C-alpha cells in the first residue's frame, strides 16, 4: 500500500503524464525529439521546456539523465544572466540584417521624415533613447544606407539616393523592419511576375565553409570556401532571373556555424535548400574526380560516410547527444523528396556541362549523414562540385565560365523538380 501511494505521489508530482511505465517511456522519447528540434533551431525556451520534461520522465524511469541535467542547469543560468543584463544594455539596438533592414529597438519611440532636394531623396528614421555600438554604411543597388549615433540619445537611420525610391517601414515585437527598392523597377517587376510560375518559391543556397573554416585546400593552394561562394552567387543570379526568391547563408568570406545555416533556411520558409561543397582526395592522390549529389539519410556506404566525415568536422566534438541518434530522429519524411530533388539536379548538371566540356564524370546521387542537412524543414541536398585535388577539375572550379555552366545546370535541376512537384 505504501509503495502504491509513493508511486501515485511520484506520478502526480512530475509533469510527464506518466500514467503508466509505457506512457512515461513514450513521453521520454517524445521530449527527446522535441529537444533535438529545439537544439537545431537554436530555440532556448523550447530546449529548457523539453529538458525539464526529459529529466522528470527520466527520473521516474530510472534512466541516466545526468547529461540532460547539466545542460538544463547551464541553460537556466544563461537565461538568468541575460535577464540581468537587459536593463544595462536596454538602450542598445541590435542589427540583424541590412537588406532588408531588421533591427531590435529598445522602444517604439521613433520619428520618420523625408528630405527632398534637387537630385537628393532621403528617408530618415530617428530612434529615440537608443544607442548603436557602431557606424554602418551599405550600398543597396543605387540606394545608400547609413546607421549612426545622431546625438547622445538618438540613433539615426538614413536611406539616400539621387533617384526616387519606394520606402516602407513597420514595427513588430520591438523590431523595426524597412523595405525599399527603386521606383523605376516597380513596373518591370510587376510585368515580369505575371509570366513567372515559380515566383513564390524560396531557395536557400549554402556556400560551404567560410572565414576561419577554409574547407578543402587543393592544388595551387586553392581554397574550397572561395570556389563555392562564387558558384553560389552565380546560381543565385540565375535563379533570381527565373523569378525565384533566393537567399544565401553567407554573402562573403565569413564563418557560419552549421546549425545556423539550416535554422536560417527554416526561418526563410525555404522550399529548397542547396549546400555547395568541393571534394578532396587523400594526400598525393590526384586521380579521383566527378560531381556527386547527396541527400540526408543514415547509410552504411563507406564512401558516403567518409565524405560526410570531412564535412561534419565542426560538430565532431558534440558531447550532449549522439549524432547518429539525431540523424535517426529527423528528416524521415523528407528523405524521398530530397532524393528526387538530388536526382533532378545531378542529371541537369551533368547534361549541361557535357554539352560544353569533355571528361565530365557523373558521381551519382547518394544518401549520407551530412550534419548541415539535419533539421531542414524542406527537401535538402549537398552537392560536391568536383575535386580540388584533381588537376583538371580544380582549374575548372575556379574558372568563371565553368562556374556559370555549373550553376546553370543546378538551376535547371531546380526547374525540373518544381515542374514535377509544383
UniProtKB/TrEMBL annotation:
Whether tRNA processing counts among this entry's keywords is: no
UniProt-listed GO biological process terms: peptidoglycan catabolic process
Q: What is this protein called?
A: N-acetylmuramoyl-L-alanine amidase
Q: Which SUPFAM superfamilies match?
A: Zn-dependent exopeptidases
| EC number(s) stated in the UniProt entry for this protein | 3.5.1.28
Stored InterPro entries: MurNAc-LAA_cat (IPR002508), N-acetylmuramoyl_amidase_3 (IPR050695)
Keywords in alphabetical order: Hydrolase
Origin organism is Caminibacter mediatlanticus TB-2
Which parts of the sequence belong to the MurNAc-LAA domain? Answer: 262-415
Give me the reactions it catalyses. Answer: Hydrolyzes the link between N-acetylmuramoyl residues and L-amino acid residues in certain cell-wall glycopeptides
One Pfam family linked to the record: Amidase_3
GO cellular component terms listed in the entry, alphabetical order: outer membrane-bounded periplasmic space
Which GO molecular function annotation, any one, does this entry have?
A: N-acetylmuramoyl-L-alanine amidase activity
- Gene3D superfamilies documented for this protein: Zn-dependent exopeptidases (3.40.630.40)
